[in-house]
Amino acid sequence: MEAHTINYEHIFQLERVLNKIQDFDILLERILLEARKIVRADAGSIYVREIGVGKEESIEKLAIKYSQNDTLSAKLAEGETLIYSFFSIPIDKKTISGYCALTHRLVNIPDMYNIEKDAPYSFNPEYDIISNYKTISTLTIPLIDSDDQLIGVIQVINSRNDAGETGPFSTSDEAVISHFATAAATALQRAHSTRIMVLRTIKMSELRDPKETGVHVNRVASYSAEIYDRWAYLHKIPAVQREKVKDILKIAAMLHDVGKVAIPDAVLKKPGRLNDEEFRIMQRHTVYGASLFGNLHSPLDEISRDVALTHHENWDGTGYPGWFDPVAGKPIKTGENGNPLGKKGEEIPLAGRIVALADVFDALCSRRVYKEPWGEPEVLNEIKKMRGIKFDPELTDIFFDIYPSIKRIQALYQEEETA
Ligand code: C2E
Ligand code: SIN
Ligand code: SIN
Ligand code: FE
Ligand code: FE
Fold first, then answer.
1. What is the pTM of this model?
2. Which atom of ligand 2 is nearest to the CA of 284?
C-alpha cells in the first residue's frame, strides 16, 4: 500500500473555506466532496442524525443527505443528475454507518464482501445490485461536535490509486480524514446555529404577521438565488465566490421583510388599501430591518442589511427609503425637500436589485389582504413593463431566461390555501 504524504496545509485551507459556508445543506454537500477528494474515493454518502418521532418514543436515526459517485455520474447523459434514494437507518450495530454513529469510531473496511466473521455489522449487497455498482472498500467516519454529540457520518467508498484501480483505504487516509472530520463538524455546528437563529427570526415575523408565511419567504429566497447564479455565470464570477454569495443571498433574502415586526398592527394588518400616512409608516420596514444587521459582523450581516434596506428601491431612483443610514437613523443625502435622495441604478446593491424583482413577482402572484392574485400573463406583462424603470434591465432579462427554474420553485413551495 502506498503511503500518501498528508498535506495539512490543504486541510487548513479547507477549514477556512468550510467556515465561510453559511447554509447547512450546501456545507454537507461540500464536505462530502472534499472528504472524497482528500482520500481519492470514487463515491460516498453523508448522513445526518435526525430525531424521527416514533409511536411511543423519539428514535434517533441516520438520514442520508447526499450521495456522490463519479463512476455512475460519468455514465449519465449531459444535464442528467445522479438519482439516489433517500433513506434512514437506525443507529445500531447492524450496519457500518449505524455502528460508527453509535460508537463514535472510524470503521475501515478493505473488502465489503469479506467482512470479518465476528464483526457486529454486515453489508447488504442489495444496494450494489440496485445501483449496478460494486462497493469494495469503505471508510466511515463519525462527525462529532464540540459537545461530543453526533452530527452525522461520512462514508467514502472505493479508494482509487493513480492508475484508477480500487484498493483499500490506508492508515494515512484514516489520519487525514479524521482531522478533516473535526474541522467539518465545527463548520456544521456553526452553520446549524446560524440556521436555527434565522428560522427563529422568521418564525417571530410569522407570529407577528401570519400572512408573511414560510412559503413566501422560501420562494423569494430561491428565486433570488437562481437569479444571482445566472448573473454570476454571465459575469464570470469565480465558482467559489459564486457559490458563497448565492448561499448567503438565499438566507439574506429570507429576511428581507423582517423589519415588518416593528410596524404597528393597525398598519401591518389593515384589511385593505393603505392611505399615504399608513404607507409612509409601512415603508419604514426597510430601515427597521436593516438596523438589525447594523454592525456588519459578517458577509451574511452585510448582505442581509443591503437586502432589507434596498429591496424597495427602483432602478429609476423613485423607490424608498433612498440614501438613509439605518443605524444613525437619518438621511445621508437629501434633496431640496429635505427627504433622502433615491438610490438609482447600480447605486442600489446587486442583492437589493435581485430581491426587489423576486419579491414583486411573488407578491403579484399571491393573494394579499389588499389584492387578489394576478394571472400569469398579467404578472409577466407587468415585470416586462417595469424593465429599466422599477427593475434592473439586465436582471429582468435574466429572470425571463431562467423562467422555467422560477416556475419549478413556485411549484415546490405551494401555499396551503386556508379557506
Ligand atoms: P408585499 O405585499 O409583499 O408587496 C411587495 C411589493 O410588490 C410591493 O411593494 C409592490 O412593489 C409590489 N406589489 C404588490 N402588490 C401589488 C399590486 O397590486 N400592484 C402593483 N403594481 N405592485 C404590487 P410596496 O408597494 O412598497 O409595498 C410594501 C409592502 O407594504 C407590501 O408587501 C405590503 O405588506 C404592504 N402594502 C403595500 N400596499 C398595501 C395596501 O394597500 N394594503 C396593505 N394592507 N398593505 C400594503
Ligand atoms: C423612516 O421614516 O424612518 C424611514 C425612512 C425614510 O425617511 O425614508
Ligand atoms: C456587485 O454589486 O456585486 C456587482 C456590481 C453590480 O452592482 O453590478
Ligand atoms: Fe418589503
Ligand atoms: Fe415581501
1. 0.71
2. 4
